[in-house]
Amino acid sequence: MENVRLDYAVPAADLADYVTLFYDFSAAVAVFDDVERADNAQIRFRLSPGGACYRFADGTEQDSSDIHVIGPTSGAVHVHAEGPIALFGMGVTAVGWAAMIGADASTMVNRVVDAGKLFGLGRLQVATAALRKTEGIAARAAVGEELVRDLIRSADGHCTLGAIGFVREVDAWLAASPSPEMEELLATTGLSRRQVERKCNALYGAPPKLLARKYRALRAAVAMAADAETIGDAVDRGFYDQSHMIREIKQFTGLTPGQIRADPGVLPRLTIAQRTALDGVVSPLVSGT
Q1: 156 exposed, middle or buried (CB, 10 Å; 0-12, 13-18, 19+)?
Q2: If residue 284 lies in a helix (H) or strand (E), which one and from where to where?
Q3: What Cα–Cα distance (Å) separates residue 224 from each residue in 3, 221, 232, 254?
Q4: pLDDT computed for residue 51 by the predictor
Q5: Which of 7-16, 175-184, 261-270 reaches the highest mean pLDDT?
Q6: Mean pLDDT calculated for residue range 63-84
Q7: Exposed, middle or buried: residue 107 (CB in 10 Å: 0-12, 13-18, 19+)?
Q8: CA atoms within 13 A on the CB side of 14
Q9: For the packed helices 193-204 and 161-176, what is the interaxial angle rounded to 10 degrees?
Q10: What is the mean predicted confidence (pLDDT) over 214-234?
Q11: In the prediction, which pLDDT does 162 show?
Q12: What is the pLDDT of residues 235-247, one digit of tens each?
């Protein structure tokens, strides 16, 4: 659709551990109604008038404030918003969550929170004004980068080198195999199963097995959308059988493999196309999902 646009920007090198991507989204429509796949936490700025409602995988429905944080999501999210829409946002990594927010991520899974209550409204209003004065993803990403640096400085002490090291080990484990084994992560981290699960819940909002399921399903969906593999190839990613694969992909994308191949919808199509174009530039957990 020509009246819907999505652009991404890669964060500066010093923010690569904290932000997945910045994005600029616009939709010249009266009502926007679509599905987002399961994802990292998000910080979003609504730059145009109008409300929005998110319906999460656990059945929770919440209206959002103009500037809001979405916690990590455990499944597809239905989005209903009044248009026209101008929105700027960023994906927040597990390290970014620890550094900027600090709360146990599992307490905010599938929830929307007013960002002003987390960060203070003043700095967010300054950023919003700067975003509205600029056009284009590059200029707006520069505003976002300065805000992230400010939030990291203000929350000094939330994030430790240990958290960064642990997240890098988990991300590498998730990226290394379509269906990674828990024993490999335990060996890499040198931690007990309970310790790994506790740290993953606090930083990612989910235990390792759920993270592995999520990324397996998302990567299979992206490969199908690109016609890069057959149904049989997708099943071989570690699903028990075709029925299991269909259920998992539907859980994390909101779409069946048939829908992904035939007509995934505007937002999923734009997301996949834009993110896969960044292969080799950003983490494969970003470009491949």
Answers
A1: exposed
A2: helix 284-287
A3: 25, 5, 11, 14
A4: 87
A5: 7-16
A6: 97
A7: exposed
A8: 8
A9: 100
A10: 84
A11: 72
A12: 888 888 999 999 9
Residue listed under structure tokens 């101008």: 86
Classify the C-alpha dihedral 94-99-101-102 as positive or negative.
positive
Q: So what's the pLDDT on residue 101?
A: 92
What is the three-state SS of 196-257? HHHHHHHHHCCCHHHHHHHHHHHHHHHHHHCCCCCHHHHHCCCCCCHHHHHHHHHHHHCCCH
Instruction: Report residue 250 CA to chain centroid gap.
Output: 17
**By percentage, how much of the chain surpasses pLDDT 90?**
83
Amino acid letter, residue 230: T
Q: Show the tokens assigned to 150.
A: 């400010």
In contact, 88 and 140? CB cutoff 8 Å = yes
Distance (Å, whole) CA 32 – CA 28: 9
Measure CA of the first residue to CA of the last residue in the chain; give whole Å. Answer: 21
Q: How many residues does the chain have?
A: 289
Determine the pLDDT at residue 262: 86
Tell me the C-alpha distance between 235 and 248, whole Å: 11
